[in-house]
Amino acid sequence: MIDPILASAILVGVFVALLALGTPIGLCIVLSSTCTIMLVLPFNIAMFTTAQKMFASLDSFSLLAVPFFVLSGVIMNNGGIATRLVNFAKLFTGRLPGSLSYTNIMGNMLFGAVSGSAIAASTSIGGVLVPMSAREGYNRSFASAVNIASAPTGMLIPPTTAFILYALASGGASIAALFAAGLVAGVLWGVGCMLITYYMVKRYGYTNFFNLRKGMALQVTKDAIPSLLLIVIIVGGIVAGIFTAIEASAIAVVYTAYLTLSLYKTLTLHDLPKLLLQTFVMSAVIMFLLATSSAMSFSMAITGIPETLSGMLLGISKSKWVILLVVTIFLLVIGCFMDIGPAILIFTPILLPIMQQIGVDPVHFGVLLVYNLAIGTITPPVGSGLYVGASVGQVKVEEVLKPLMPFYAGIIAVLLLITYVPDVILFLPRMLGVM
Fold this sequence. Notes:
This protein has 20 helices and no strands. With 435 residues, it is mostly helical.
């Protein structure tokens, strides 16, 4: 039997070396996995087994949900939904001091939910509100920080592909339960950002108010409700058992196409080839990562890495809470260097058995995993959300980091709350009877 420590060293070493050379992450995963499998099996059998595991991992009917949800998100991103949701958010935040900051947070929560993308929310909502905030006298770095900090809420508020990937990688966690628990976590993230904004607005002395013209509230609500209904239809339908996640993804495509092509008329049939091409590319990347991560899972299983890691973690402490803290710190670090999709696919098979061994519910861990990795999208050195948000705000990254610090503190505080008081997020799926 090969030494698991040696196998871990080769797996991680080859992966990091290839990544440092600029190799695409999917190739890093499959090549490092193959090298690790070759410690146990001959070269020809290792190559055959790797290919077999990759193809077998894609032979799943559940995977149909991925391209459909991706397509619905692409349609929403290109369909002019952002302005309607911003106007709707103003109804609730327009009378608050520093209202544009609150509007940005709420707009990101709403648009991120319907699009499922933190980058899309940061670009679409921030692209409207950050320049507007600057014109109203807001510090541009602060306005950009508000946009960056709140953009990842859409990765938690359903529908989101992150929880679908986790459900697949975990081998059967309830998507309905993940969506319900993720909804609570995403809202808490947004509320945390609003509380920090309240403190920051008082500190900066922003007192300007933002009001819609008299009589516009009804029209703004009418414009926004069809978009917001997507969340209700998808989440409500899955939770109520009216349709499965796969059927919900197809319904999401039909509904978003109806909104943008027929109701709002912001897209035409001539736009569809471009949208389908974007969907094809994004879905292909996800599928390839899913296939390669299955090869990595097999390489770890055949060399005994998960058992060794489990023994090491359990050797640190027998306390569930200490192990949760160690895993949380580990995931925060991983999120700083790796995109959320590959990280979910790679670390779910490793960490979930350990979490179950210490009594953590798979739905609870799924939300913690996505929450931790979502933080990584707005943290240096690799956080794509941080760089995109700074670009949208037309500020340098180093300029936005200082006003971001209080938001990091608020987001981490929410993370500790949902980590150590799981009922905060699990009460909703339990109340709905989906777990």
